[in-house]
């Protein structure tokens, strides 16, 4: 039997259930989640703060302190590492967490670009690089700066496009899974009336930074807008004109306009009514994940892109089509754990796109952090004890 070209692993191999998704309810049910701790983190009422908010950092800090106690460590946490993929969002989350905790620390942000020469930039406590393999150099760097890596240190590890689907290398597979989820949702609702070409035209146009003031870069919003446009509730040309002229500046304006149209047309849009009611109701309640039925489709399309191609698949094709576990992050996390560092995973992906329903769990579907993936990366020089090398450095 031929040995697998790629080893397989899960995020849980180095995180266990010390993982939290968008709803801020830790996967480890021994940890008290947001529904219980919101008064303790400064919220006036229960709501789910987003990743760039200061209250999000307060929630994560609460979970980290609980996790430290749960693992039986008498020493309190005193130092912070943060591993992510975006200067703005992860950089902000890291700085907010430092401010909330008062701990010294460093953040590592990578976006792979092998067409450019290796580059490292140091900026306000962030170590910014275009190579994931620089994680080893980063860990050397922070120790040289006087930051011990031991039981009093926590490493907060971003999951999406960091620990899995590494940005610049494998993130397009994550994006493809999301597009698949939007397409399946729209197709399921519209049935025979679904127009694939029209859907892609609308999705590709609106899924650009130019429209972020309108969509808030929220895929729930984008999926709903695509459905309402392709389903004929709101004319596409009119929408683009209204956005350009400032007459449709926010998603609230759009969903209210759709509510008016759907409620006035009792003879039409039968297939869209239940979806519109779902999104409209959740949005009015302030739910950051208003289109939950779409996100459940995204869960299935994401799981479907993990470890599904043969080992012999050409590497470039594999990285475009299949979501893989980032070898450098796995290696660094194992190395840190050997030194007593607490590793904790965070994800802004909605719980509905990350966790199976009870029926799916009964059928054997795993949470994303328990899903098996191929491990792809470049050896960094920090091999965990007892592990075989997981990749050939010559591949990159």
- What sort of overall outline do the alpha carbons produce when their principal axes are compared? globular
Terminal Cα span: 27 Å
Report the uncertain regions: 383-396
Q: Count every helix, treating DSSP H or I runs of 4 or more residues as helices.
A: 16
Rg estimate, integer Å: 22 Å
Reported for the largest beta sheet, the result is: 7 strands, mixed
Strand content: 5-15%
Total strands:
10
Roughly how much helix do the residues carry, as a percent range? Answer: 40-55%
Largest sheet, spatial ordering of strands:
2-9-7-3-4-6-5
Number of domains: 2
What is the helix/strand order? EHEHHEHEEEHEHHHHHHHHHEHEHE
Give the overall average pLDDT.
93
What structural class should be given to the helix and strand makeup?
A: alpha/beta
What attributes does this structure have?
single chain, 396 residues, alpha/beta, seven-stranded mixed β-sheet, 16 helices
What would you note in describing this structure?
The chain is α/β, with parallel strands linked by helices and 396 residues long. The protein has 2 domains: 234 residues, no CATH class; 131 residues, no CATH class. It has a 7-stranded mixed β-sheet with strand order 2-9-7-3-4-6-5, sandwiched between helices. It has a 3-stranded mixed β-sheet with strand order 1-10-8. The C terminus is likely disordered.
Summary of the model, kept short:
The protein is of the alpha/beta class and 396 residues long.
Topology:
Elements: E1 8-9, H1 12-15, E2 19-20, H2 34-37, H3 54-70, E3 79-84, H4 89-101, E4 105-110, E5 120-123, E6 126-129, H5 135-144, E7 153-158, H6 171-190, H7 196-206, H8 212-215, H9 219-230, H10 236-244, H11 251-264, H12 270-284, H13 292-303, H14 315-321, E8 325-326, H15 327-338, E9 342-346, H16 358-362, E10 373-376
Parallel strand pairs: 2-9, 3-4, 3-7, 4-6, 7-9, 8-10
Antiparallel strand pairs: 1-10, 5-6
Helix pairs in contact: 3-4, 6-9, 6-13, 7-9, 11-12
């Amino acid at each position: 039997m031929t040995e697998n070209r790629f080893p397989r692993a899960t995020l849980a191999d180095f995180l266990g259930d010390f993982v939290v998704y968008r709803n801020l309810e830790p996967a480890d049910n021994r940890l008290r989640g947001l529904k219980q701790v919101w008064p303790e983190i400064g919220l006036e009422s229960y709501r789910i703060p987003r990743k760039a908010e200061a209250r999000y950092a307060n929630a994560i800090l609460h979970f980290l302190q609980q996790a430290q106690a749960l693992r039986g460590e008498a020493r309190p946490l005193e130092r912070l590492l943060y591993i992510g993929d975006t200067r703005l969002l992860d950089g902000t989350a890291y700085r907010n967490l430092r401010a909330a905790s008062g701990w010294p620390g460093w953040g590592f942000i990578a976006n792979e670009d092998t067409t450019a020469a290796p580059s490292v930039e140091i900026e306000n406590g962030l170590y910014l690089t275009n190579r994931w393999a620089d994680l080893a150099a980063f860990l050397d760097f922070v120790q040289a700066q006087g930051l011990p890596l031991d039981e009093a240190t926590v490493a907060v590890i971003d999951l999406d496009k960091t620990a899995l689907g590494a940005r610049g290398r494998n993130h397009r597979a994550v994006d493809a899974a999301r597009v698949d989820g939007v397409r399946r949702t729209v197709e399921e609702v519209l049935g025979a009336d679904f127009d694939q070409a029209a859907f892609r035209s609308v999705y590709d146009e609106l899924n650009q930074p130019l429209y972020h003031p309108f969509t808030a870069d929220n895929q729930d919003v984008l999926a709903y807008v695509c459905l309402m446009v392709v389903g004929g509730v709101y004319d596409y040309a009119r929408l683009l004109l209204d956005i350009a002229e400032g007459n449709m500046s926010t998603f609230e304006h759009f969903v209210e306009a759709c509510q008016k149209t759907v409620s006035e047309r009792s003879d039409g849009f039968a297939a869209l009514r239940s979806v519109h009611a779902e999104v409209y109701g959740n949005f009015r309640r302030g739910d950051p994940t208003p289109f939950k039925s779409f996100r459940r489709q995204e869960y299935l399309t994401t799981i479907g892109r993990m470890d599904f191609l043969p080992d012999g698949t050409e590497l470039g094709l594999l990285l475009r089509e299949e979501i893989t576990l980032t070898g450098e992050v796995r290696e660094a996390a194992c190395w840190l754990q050997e030194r007593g560092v607490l590793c904790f995973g965070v994800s802004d992906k909605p719980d509905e796109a990350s966790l199976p329903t009870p029926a799916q769990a009964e059928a054997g579907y795993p949470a994303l952090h328990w899903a098996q993936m191929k491990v792809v990366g470049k050896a960094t020089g920090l091999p965990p004890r007892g592990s075989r090398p997981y990749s050939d450095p010559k591949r990159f």
